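Final paragraph of the annual report: two paired records, presented back to back.
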Amino acid sequence: MRILYIAIIALAVVQAGFANYWQVGPGKTYTAPSQVSSLVEDGDTVAIDAGVYESDVARWAANDLFITGVGGKAHLKANGNSYGQKAIWVIAGDNTRIENIEFSLCTVPDQNGAGIRQEGKNLTVRYCHFHHNDDGILAGTMNPSNIIIEFCEFGYNGYGDGQSHNLYINNIDTLIFRFNYSHHTSVGHELKSRAHVNYILYNRISDEAGTTSSRSIDLPNGGTTYLIGNLIEQGPESENSNIIGYGLEGLNNPSPHELFAINNTIINNRSNGSFFSFQNGTTFFKAFNNIIAGPGVFVQGNYPSNVDTASNIMSTDIGVFEFADPDSYDFHLTANSQLAIDQGSNPGSDGGFSLSPVLEYMHPSDSLIRCQTGFLDIGAYEFCIISDVQNNPVQDFKIYPNPAHDFLYVDMPFVAGSTFEIFNSMGQLLLSKFAENRVDISQFSAGIYFIIIKNGASQWCSKFVKE
């Protein structure tokens, strides 16, 4: 159900009036991204043809840049090269958006060579792939600053010293990490974030076999974290027995220090360990509807001062959950998963943010609407008969334009009583109404949205982009 980003950039540039549109690739005036990195100005777009760009590194200092691969991923293959002994790309400007780029083979003497080194404020990364670097993304301390990472893959990053990771986000305001696949870190963490607030939603974070990664998720300075709908798997050779660490380097982030773990499937394939570990002084831990499978204790050491738990199921025997194919890391429920089906509890909300899972991770690096035909199931996946909800557009269901601006048009015959539901990419329901062929989306901010159409006894869902 992946949206292929076909950016109609030229029209947008003409409308903007001042922004430039830079084309990069074989046969173009500029054959490598580094050739335009010092020429771009605020608000420009850089379109890089798919292909491999050997040993090409750059620093981007302009603000409001959109840098994208076209016709497939543009692969920045560093071959041990870096800009300023830092990264393949050093992002010094603010409000940068990067899509459809592959970053690999960056290493530097201090062992922190990254695919992206973020030095500016606010970054969005979509549909990118980071592998075999010292760090995938390394983001420095910057306030105010927010980082969004979605639909990306991180694998085989880490120098092997335990100080470099698939992702290392330092002290920023907010990290939104969703619909990503992070795996096979060399000794380091699959995700390490010092952000004050973390939304870690609908990801696959899995060590798998043949890796020596450390924690699956490390949140060393506390703060507020929402951990919803994730598949988290610790491999048999992990060098750290703890899967999720919270505040273990000191609760230095702004309070409150709260962790919400809702509808995750957490698997320990190691012979021992712990699923959660908290710094003394953590104020609140809410854990609803989690599958805790494999050896180890639920919480190691200090419990937070306030705990609210319900409908978590825990067993050292992974087999009792009757997953689809655990040997291949497919932890979907089956008809035999009676421990989890319809056994969930309503997790409520926190400060207006709904904690109920409405999406699911779909491998690789994608998402779909969570099907719910009865009571909420426990874990990251809902068991549904596939025919109940079709997660791909069908012949008589078209939405256009996509990307859209003020209005979205639905080309589909409706029966009486058909309805729309539109969710944002955080999984929050924004609109529910009787179906019609023209939908006003002007009130929505730019981003990715999900539309589910209920037409009689059938349902369909798809994605659209609001510009």
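The closing record of the year follows.
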Amino acid sequence: MPAEALLSIRDLSIHFGGLKAVDGVSFELGGGRILGLLGPNGAGKTTCFNAISGVYTPTGGDIFLEGRKTNGLPPHRMAELGVGRTFQIVRPFTDLSVRDNVIVALGGDRYRGIFKALTSWRGREVRQEAEKILATVGLLDLAERRAGLLPIGNLRRLEIARALALRPRILLLDESFSGLRQAEIVQIETLLRGIRDTGLAILLIEHNMKVAMALSDRVVVLDHGRKLAEGPPAEVSADPAVIEAYLGKGESGRVA
């Protein structure tokens, strides 16, 4: 494994009975890079995310975070080790303010209960840190707004802010562009490039192929649980096997 790899996936397999949701997948991700994990519905992308973030224990293969084997560690331990994650379905604490949603995430490594985080760790320092994160994602002017009142574009930003509050080294983004208008897509693309440029590693699942290919430094394409292709976006998007997986036999042209 190269020394610069933050995340190394080696022959990862996740089986549910006779279903091989992920079957012998390998890839690596270094700091300051964006890797797109792509594929048709049911390809195994979210299952990979769940294994990396500790939701699933691998049936076979290994997961390494900076050379440390993390197979079987629970999600809270993976978060402590520097893995932050967003979800396709955004579920903030709807009755809390935007700022307090981030404060809860910031308190995660100090308190096990949400209410302790809110009542015992709301000093100036954590408030300032929360506001710094909100400024990064473009939500500072909405810090007092109740999270449940936010439109989907701002909810996606809040989800990224809460993941950043875990102080991650690797950010797993699951469909962060889903449901967004073009102007919002461009804004979040700019945000993620800025996050990458701070040295964080980003692994993303994205169904919008145009967005995924433009944003990723490299892409890995899965199909039926196996790795179909890996490489630079321009190279992978022209791969006949990838085109067939997305468009079906008899079609031609690029994926993106």
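The CA atoms of residues 55 and 75 lie 6 Å apart. This concludes the annual technical report; the extension proposal builds directly on these records.
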